[in-house]
Amino acid sequence: MEYIVKEEGKRLDAYISSIDEEITRTMAQKLIEKEQILVNGEKQKVSYKVKSGDKIVIKKVEPQQVELKAQEIPIDIIYEDKDIIVVNKPKGMVVHPANGNPDGTLVNAIMAICKDSLSGIGGEIRPGIVHRLDKDTSGLLIIAKNDKSHVNISEQIKNHEVKKTYIALVKGIIKENEATIDMPIGRSISDRKKMAVNKNGKNAITHIKVLKRYNKYTLLQVNIETGRTHQIRVHLSHIGYPIVGDYTYSNGKNEFGVIGQCLHAKALEFKHPITGEKMCLEAPLPEYFQKILQELDKT
């Protein structure tokens, strides 16, 4: 990947982590030392201060190969045809294999269902995967069965033509019926494993609408214009209303004992990548989420 620097004076490692949210500062330092990050074609020190006009090339290390295998894992299929499959991913399931999660993922389950009918654009470890959900976020995901569908859906997402609607239960009572959170998100300065509202981050816009107020909690409908890593969780936590069960962006403690955020990708609206037909799909709230709301209705 190539970048042309448009600012002055920032350390090379810090600059790299600010322009690529997948690279932490520590990772950047290792890539610089291994000469996988070059400035104007030459190796530079980690402490090098970037200059406007510098050409930076990042050669990312290919992910460690993970042996993919089809696994008969029950998965809730909402829609399927010869071009796409839309599933309702359960909370706790990782989307694709990676170090530490070699199997038991959504990809392993989809491979058993689709056999060889998956697009190859996502790479060997992410066949068919057009977009992702966090491990502990449940809900709708589109998987492409061929490259043409993959390219088309990716373009729709890039052009904000895919409407994603989430349901979230947050701590605290939000007074406004509707609000828009327009705050850039980037890597956290204090903890590189987390994301945070960061003035040097990427544009991120989240719309929230109150569905119901409970004693100490608020049920929200959430729509996002952008798809930054952990966007909804970061934005809601930043304004003081963390999602129930979100260990990373709140203390994680909750009276319901639920592990993982109460966040569900309920609805998707998009155009079918081949026919152009408007698709409107929904997935019901998971059982644990429904039980929490039933408990709250009693208070």
Helical residue percent band: 10-25%
Main sheet specs: 9 strands, mixed
Q: Roughly what fraction of the amino acids lie in strands?
A: 25-35%
The second-level CATH architecture of the largest domain is: 2-Layer Sandwich
Assigned CATH class of the largest domain = Alpha Beta
CATH topology label of the largest domain: Pseudouridine synthase
**Computed CA radius of gyration, to the nearest angstrom:** 21 Å
> Distance N terminus to C terminus?
54 Å
* Number of contiguous helices: 6
Low-confidence stretches: none
Shape: globular
Query: Mean of the pLDDT scores?
Result: 87
| Domain tally | 3
The helix-strand sequence is EHHEEEEHEHEEEEEEHEEH
By secondary-structure content and strand pairing, the structural class works out as alpha+beta
The CATH H-level homologous superfamily of the largest domain? Pseudouridine synthase
Q: What is the count of β-strands?
A: 14
Can you describe this structure?
The chain contains six helices and 14 strands. It has 299 residues and is α+β, with helices and mostly antiparallel strands. The chain has three domains: 57 residues, Structural Genomics Hypothetical 15.5 Kd Protein In mrcA-pckA Intergenic Region, Chain A; 97 residues, Pseudouridine synthase; 107 residues, 2-Layer Sandwich (Pseudouridine synthase). The longest helix has 12 residues. The radius of gyration is 21 Å and the shape is globular.
